[in-house]
Specification:
- The chain is mainly α.
- The protein contains 14 helices and no strands.
């Protein structure tokens, strides 16, 4: 009877093991459970989703006007609710251009600059952080010293120098923001590598004869991904703010294209007669940066080990 019970118990254990969900499914379940309990995460995802959708498909919507089309008879038309009409729901600027269309065009610029700058900074900074943390020695000192020097160099000054040399452009702003933020990824990546390089899986790889490049890119890098994704989202908010600041100073996108910072720069002289120009552009920057920050805070809390364990314990059958 005992043998039969042991056999049935073994079969049940085997069936339970076979029925266990894959690791990816478990992570997705944890992600959904954590999101349902986080108002900040839900708000951040909604804001960022609306921002991405509007920036991507907004210009092709049939009711969106050409952001560069001028109509002097319609200049400084107020938004709906302040004497305006639905022909221009958010009003027009000093040249009669539709504010809603220019906000959508500016969203595309912000999304392009933010994603491209963070992508370049993340690749460069993470690679240098991996090398500095794993190799150590003089290479580590050289990379960290370069990061310290770069952090002490103002990004606005770098923008002025590059604008004087090459002229203002969107890609120039991307390069300036990227070279002004790679140090963050380097320092975070280096710190994580210094923590992980003494782990058993790293020592096992080294003892098996794996080259340093394989240990760094195949074993250490995957363990940095979750933290680096959170950092990328956080730096995206900083990149959007930087793009607006550079556009306000005249370094970035040039007329007739639109940018939120450029709209504020052009509308500041009409703050009494056309307050909506500056107001809606400023609100767009504030809301998007808030949404990105909320998303990064949620990702940071999700990556916290203690909170992940709490989610697992609260899961049915956990």
């Amino acid at each position: 009877m005992t043998a039969v019970d042991d056999t049935m118990s073994s079969g049940a254990d085997t069936g339970a093991a076979d029925a266990a969900p894959p690791e990816g499914v478990t992570v997705l379940s944890d992600l959904r459970s954590h999101l349902r309990k986080s108002k900040a995460g839900i708000s951040g995802i909604l804001i960022c989703s609306v921002f991405a959708v509007v920036a991507t498909i907004g210009p092709w919507l049939p009711f969106i006007k050409d952001p560069a089309q001028q109509s002097l008879p319609d200049k400084l038309t107020p938004p709906v609710g302040w004497g305006g009409t639905w022909a221009h729901p958010l009003g027009t600027d000093q040249l009669g251009r539709d504010i809603l269309a220019r906000l959508i065009d500016g969203a595309r610029i912000s999304l392009l600059v933010g994603l491209a700058a963070v992508f370049i900074a993340a690749i460069l900074g993470t690679a240098l952080g991996l090398i500095a943390g794993y190799v150590g020695g003089k290479i580590d000192t050289l990379i960290i010293s370069a990061a310290d020097v770069q952090m002490a160099f103002p990004g606005v000054l770098a923008g002025l120098i590059l604008v004087a040399a090459f002229g203002p452009s969107v890609w120039l702003v991307i390069i300036v923001i990227a070279i002004s933020s790679w140090m963050v990824f380097t320092r975070v990546g280096r710190g994580l590598v210094l923590t992980l390089k003494t782990s058993l899986f790293v020592e096992a790889s080294e003892l098996s004869g794996a080259p340093s490049s394989r240990v760094m890119w195949r074993h250490l890098l995957p363990n940095l991904v979750s933290s680096l994704i959170t950092l990328c989202v956080l730096e995206l908010a900083a990149a959007i703010l930087s793009e607006s600041a550079f556009a306000f100073l005249g370094f970035g996108v040039q007329p007739p294209r639109s940018s939120w910072g450029l709209m504020i720069q052009q509308g500041r002289n009409y703050i009494t007669d056309g307050w909506w120009i500056v107001t809606f552009a400023g609100l767009a920057i504030s809301i998007v940066v808030l949404g990105v920050n909320l998303l990064s805070l949620w990702l940071q809390s999700f990556n916290d080990v203690a909170e992940r364990e709490q989610i697992i314990l609260e899961r049915p059958g956990g």
